[in-house]
Amino acid sequence: MNRLDRQMRIEGWNQPALDRARIGVVGDNDLLASLFMLSAAALGVNRLVVIGPYLDSRIEGIAFKVNPLLDLTHVEGLYTHSALDDIFGRCDLMVDVSHFGLANKLLLEKGFREHLPVVRGFCHETGDVQGFHVLTYFRGREWRELEQTVSSSSLPGKHFDDGVLDSIVAGIVLEEASSVLMQRKVSNALISYRREKPQARGHRPEILVVGAGALGNFVGLGLAHSGFQRCTFMDPDVVEATNLNRQILLHDAVGQRKSETLSARLNDLFDMRSRAEVAYFQDHMDLSAYDVVFDCVDNFETRIVLSEQCRVQGKVLISGGTSPGAAQVVVYDPGKRGATPAELLGLPEIVRARGEESVLRRRASCTYRPEPSVVMTNQIAAGFMVDALRMLLSGQEAGNVFYDSSSDAKLQDDE
């Protein structure tokens, strides 16, 4: 149970409700069900029943190592008839991440008939616009928005899928599902995101990821799914047991260096050509070898230094931050000459107001910063961070994104 310590510090958290839960998942021939399964396992959900033609064997293997108590039933097929309902006996809720209307309608009917919550999430593409929808359905929520969650294609077939957007959707769906199970507030609205389709270009940047914790793990996974190869992961810390509820690729590496383990695992599983640097990010560090810097650190002091050095050296900076219920992604493009992430978020003022000197950390950050932390907001923030990079590389403007699990809209852009 030590690995779940950080999320059990969250006020009102009910881990026994997750331990006892049985979740039914209807998937498709893509990554979305696999990514949901992985995050649910990390959260401590022990019983999952999945109907779908495909689960990624790499992600499935990680899920079992992240949660040794995981009881996974995978039925390889498609949910096309209510006769299959017996497979979902004694489920507490259903998760629908499929992409064909027949399954969507069957699950809505099942939810209505059995008073069973259904959390629906999927990616979509219309013309040059891509995005996703997430909605939590209870009997009585027969809103017009339900029409937007039913796929236009009635039967299984080719559909739009994207590993980075999948990761964000999986995180939001798990946020909603866990809130249902713990009787916490869920969204009363359709959660939506859309942006222009990024246009692939030949340039593949040199990337520095500062921080190999929860954000760094999911950023690495998103970069791998997007085909980025040349990455350096910088982190001085070692893995602790209390990291394991969210640092999904470090499942068996307690006591080992985070950056080295993360780099090696991504290279092994996804054929990346990443490398590790066991170091703190320091003032005046030379960034000339990199095109883009990802800020995945957990303290304001280092985030301030990152912002200043990227401004001085003219480097793109994609900065992420999370709390148990919120996340933000702030992008600095030196060509725009706008505020840095630290300036926009007011981090220097916050540090000055503390009236404390920064502590030089010598071991894992969680020893010194034992605040609550959970997998979902890190997964969501990291997905938007990688998506911001893809947008910038295709010549689009990447806006700032703010996620708040306590609001109905969940997502806000820029302001």
Shape, per Cα inertia axes: globular
The portion of residues assigned to helices is 25-40%
Average residue-wise pLDDT: 93
Strand content: 15-25%
Listing every helix as H and every strand as E from the N terminus to the C terminus, the arrangement reads: HHEHEHEEHEEHEEHEHEEHEEHHHHEE
Low-pLDDT ranges:
359-365
Please specify the SSE layout and strand pairing.
Elements: H1 5-8, H2 15-20, E1 22-26, H3 32-43, E2 47-51, H4 57-66, E3 71-75, E4 93-96, H5 101-114, E5 118-126, E6 129-137, H6 163-181, E7 191-196, E8 207-210, H7 214-225, E9 231-234, H8 258-270, E10 275-277, E11 292-295, H9 300-313, E12 316-323, E13 326-332, H10 341-345, H11 347-354, H12 365-368, H13 375-393, E14 401-404, E15 411-413
Parallel strand pairs: 1-2, 1-4, 2-3, 4-5, 8-9, 8-11, 9-10, 11-12
Antiparallel strand pairs: 5-6, 6-7, 12-13, 13-14, 14-15
Description:
The protein has 415 residues and is an alpha/beta fold. It has two domains: 2-196, 3-Layer(aba) Sandwich (Rossmann fold); 207-413, 3-Layer(aba) Sandwich (Rossmann fold), CATH 3.40.50. Helix content is 34%, strand content 19%. The strands form two sheets. An eight-stranded mixed β-sheet has the order 10-9-8-11-12-13-14-15, sandwiched between helices. A seven-stranded mixed β-sheet has the order 3-2-1-4-5-6-7. Helix 6 runs antiparallel to helix 13 and helix 7 (214-225) packs across helix 13 (375-393).
